[in-house]
Structures are given as C-alpha cells and as structure tokens.
Design brief:
The chain is of the alpha+beta class. It contains 3 helices and 4 strands; from the N terminus they run βαββααβ. Helices cover 33% and strands 34% of the residues.
C-alpha cells in the first residue's frame, strides 16, 4: 500500500537539514531503486525552487510499504528526524487513483 509521510520542519532547522541531506537522499534513493517511491520533495517557505536562507517548511514522501507500521518505522529513522530537522512527522495511508 502507498503511504504519505508528511513532515513539518522546526524553526531554524536549515543548517541541520543541509547537514543531514546526503544521508536522507541516499535513503530515499533506495526506495526509488526498489520501485517503491511515487514522489518525494521539500516544501519551500517561499515561492521559489531555491528558497535560500528562507529554508523549508517541511517535506512530503509518497512511498509503498508493507504496512502502516513499516512506513512509520521507516519515517522515524530518517536522517532528518535524527538530526532534529522535523517538528513532527505524520504518516497516513494513501490510495493512488490518477495517473
């Protein structure tokens, strides 16, 4: 089943985000290689593909896992979580209809 992992950044987390980014992307790349990633990306604080020092408000990943618990466990061990980037992480089931 598909799951949405929606995360909200804590204030002043841009430096921590930048530091943990390589490990985070490496982990998401594994989902992509396994054919389990639908979409992933950050949400800029301003209307720009490169928000610079304005940073990000959070991230969204839609990926396939065997269960809600598996998705929650995967999200809980994300490098951004371990680096203290996120204020909170919400994991929910998702039914892909289109395309």
């Amino acid at each position: 089943m598909w799951y949405i992992i929606h995360s909200e950044d804590r204030e002043e987390s841009l430096a921590a985000r930048k530091g943990a980014r390589p490990a985070h992307l490496e982990r998401v790349q594994v989902l992509l290689e396994q054919g389990r990633l639908l979409v992933a990306g950050p949400m800029p604080n301003i209307d720009s593909a490169d928000p610079g020092p304005a940073g990000f408000s959070g991230s969204t990943i839609i990926a396939e896992f065997d269960s809600l618990e598996d998705a929650r466990q995967w999200a809980a061990t994300d490098p951004y979580v371990e680096a203290g980037v996120y204020e909170y992480v919400d994991v929910r089931t998702f039914i892909k209809v289109l395309p």
